[in-house]
Amino acid sequence: MKLSKTNYLVYRDCAHNAWMKVHRPDAYAAQPLSVFDQAIIETGNDVDVRARALFPGGVLIRRGDAAGTAELVAARTSVLYQPVFETERYTTACDILAWNDALQAYDLFEVKASTSGDDRRAKYDLYAHDIAFQALVLEACGVPLGRLHLVRLNGAYVSDGTLDIAQLFTREDFTERAGALFEAVRAEMDAAHDVISLAEMPPAPCACIYKGRSSQCTTFATINPGVPEYSVHDLTRIGASPKKLRALVDDGILDIREVPASFELTVPQRHQVEAVQRRQPYVDLAPLGAFLADIRYPVAFLDYETYPCALPRFARYSPFNHVPFQFSLHTVEAPGAAPVHREFLFTEKGCPDQPFVDALVAALPAEGSIIAWNKPFERGINAKLAERLPADAARLEAINARFIDLMDVFSEQMVVHPRFRGKTSIKWVLPALVPKLSYKALAIQEGATASETWNAIVTGELEPDQADEARRNLLAYCGLDSLAMVEIWRALIDIQAAREIREAG
Ligand code: SF4
């Protein structure tokens, strides 16, 4: 059994998970890739292909063709795309190898669909290990190696409507950084190979039994079947209190309903446990009242849909800028008034920026609160629009000053419902507070699918009747996002009124 670079990198995160990936692919891939994850993979492939233009005229190697690669390397073919190398224990494919005459060796270029300027240490470390693995396999195959490079998208690049490949990518020399890791990576590769070669899974539980839910991978439930679906791992911010989680797990307390009243928790964690134990919502009346009192009529409930483009598609766009192609707006003019719906969807050829802003300004009331769910997203899109459309910057800044984030009610634990399960996404809050509204019957149920649907329309992937249906699906999805906020807000008003009456009585 050969260890691939991908499995080595999985092993570096978690040995258990690497074993599951190799031996239990059914469990590893039990949850099909989300549209979001698929889009990341496709984006990576697009960026790889574009980066080849930095080294034109290369030979593209067929997937898995180590023998063909060896022949081309022996012939000193000047540029190879996706060359494959194998030893008895290891296998890797590189993005680009380019012959360096001065060094009489091949330079290696690893292409990543991320932007330069993101210099977090963990990422640099990951890239260095990734490149070191490749270099060690190539060295074992007898390939003369020159410099080792990381190629990324240039975060500072601004398109003029075309793609200047030389400006679009940055090259960083990782030779010393990766070389310094060779000893350690060699040892890790041996250890990783030993783990994936085991016939039996390493003993359960896995290390995430002592970590919060957000650290756990998709195989957690398979490895740890005794942990209930809603467990102590779902306690809010429990990942930041590993001692507490360890104490609960070591005492055999896994079900969140079984956390004893005497166990020390933070106030939000205690509210979460009590909501489940009493099977009724917890309401923090004073902050909820203050939050609702801040909302001014006419109240505008606004939701955007966007498409994140790794490769800038329009003038004034940089890598990974989002294309705002749709909004839905429900406006409640006065207390008790029915919401009025306005919407915008751009599926023409060309850039939607200016039509989007014009439609937004025309649809929004001139004053009052603008409610969003996770307002940094909508405000961030407006800020980027203001950069690209300086003539509209003042109008967009004025809009940004009016936003209120409805999600704050839940992330700040003003209302805690047992059915939220510690989550604050609208997809969890809506069915708990407004069961009559649901995303379940919709063809599009989350934002990544909306993005990909829009892209399929504008890139001509769909037949005209399919495109019409896709537009209807987009309108239904985004429309429900803003309507859901209206109904959640109304439910909060009702909850507050009922609690006040109860407390007064
Ligand atoms: S849940 Fe955590 S420890 Fe368990 S296999 Fe996944 S990543 Fe590894």
Structural account:
The protein is of the alpha/beta class. The protein folds into three domains: 3-196, Lambda Exonuclease, Chain A (Alpha-Beta Complex); 209-278, no CATH class; 288-504, Nucleotidyltransferase, domain 5 (2-Layer Sandwich), CATH 3.30.420. The chain is 44% helix and 16% strand. The protein has helices spanning 5-13, 15-23, 25-28, 35-51, 66-74, 121-140, 165-168, 175-179, 182-196, 220-223, 242-250, 267-278, 285-293, 353-363, 375-388, 393-400, 408-411, 426-433, 447-458, 464-504, and strands at 3-4, 59-60, 79-81, 84-86, 90-93, 96-100, 105-115, 145-153, 169-173, 282-283, 299-309, 321-332, 340-345, 370-372, 403-405, 415-416. Strands 2-3-6-7-8-9 form a six-stranded mixed β-sheet. Helix 1 crosses helix 9, helix 13 crosses helix 20 (464-504) and helix 19 runs antiparallel to helix 20 (464-504). The longest helix has 41 residues, at 464-504. The model has no long low-confidence stretch (mean pLDDT 94). It binds iron/sulfur cluster (SF4). The site of iron/sulfur cluster has 11 residues, from helix 2 and helix 10.
Q: Brief overview, please?
A:
The chain is α/β, with parallel strands linked by helices.
